């Protein structure tokens, strides 16, 4: 199933897209997860427990980017938006994903490995994992950002003492 998920990702970002940003790059799933973890920057949930890796490009800059996120078991990401259109592929585990300004299990759908979904620009969405956690590859055209629907749900606000 992993090979199928990676193939779906390549279809989603288009032929040769990675070559435009970073030159030629080929990564197996194990090689992708061996890349260094980067700080939770633009386009991430900013939850410290989530591991983020740059697969291609730079989400903070202009141009195509792809990040890999490894989300631990039983993690919830509150409703938020991004300014860019994004596509995503679940490569491992089960990712529960929903659209709307209020995160609820009833409004989410379980997406197993190989699943594809979109995050339209400025469309509120949320996600959570069950006991198996999940790994997701997300592609967008930066610069990107993350804006929580309710500012109090932003993990960055809790780290800096801001409301």
TrEMBL record:
Residues 1-18 form the signal peptide. Residues 50-144 form the ChrR-like cupin domain. Transmembrane segments: none annotated. Keywords: Signal. The lineage of its organism: Bacteria, Pseudomonadati, Pseudomonadota, Alphaproteobacteria, Sphingomonadales. This is Cupin domain-containing protein. CDD domains: cupin_DRT102. It comes from Sphingomonas rustica. InterPro entries: ChrR-like_cupin_dom, RmlC-like_jellyroll, RmlC_Cupin_sf.
């Amino acid at each position: 199933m992993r090979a199928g998920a990676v193939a779906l990702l390549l279809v989603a970002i288009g032929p040769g897209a990675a070559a435009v940003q970073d030159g030629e790059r080929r990564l197996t799933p194990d090689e992708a997860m061996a890349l260094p973890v980067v700080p939770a920057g633009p386009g991430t949930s900013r939850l410290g427990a989530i591991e983020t890796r740059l697969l291609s490009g730079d989400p903070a800059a202009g141009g195509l980017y792809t990040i890999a996120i490894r989300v631990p078991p039983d993690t919830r990401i509150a409703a938020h938006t991004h300014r860019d259109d994004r596509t995503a592929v679940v490569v491992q585990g089960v990712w529960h994903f929903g659209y709307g300004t209020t995160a609820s299990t009833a409004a989410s759908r379980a997406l197993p490995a190989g699943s594809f979904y979109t995050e339209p620009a400025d469309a509120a969405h949320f996600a959570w994992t069950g006991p198996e956690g999940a790994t997701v590859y997300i592609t967008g055209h930066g610069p990107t950002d993350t804006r929580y629907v309710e500012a109090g749900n932003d993990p960055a606000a809790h780290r800096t003492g801001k409301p």
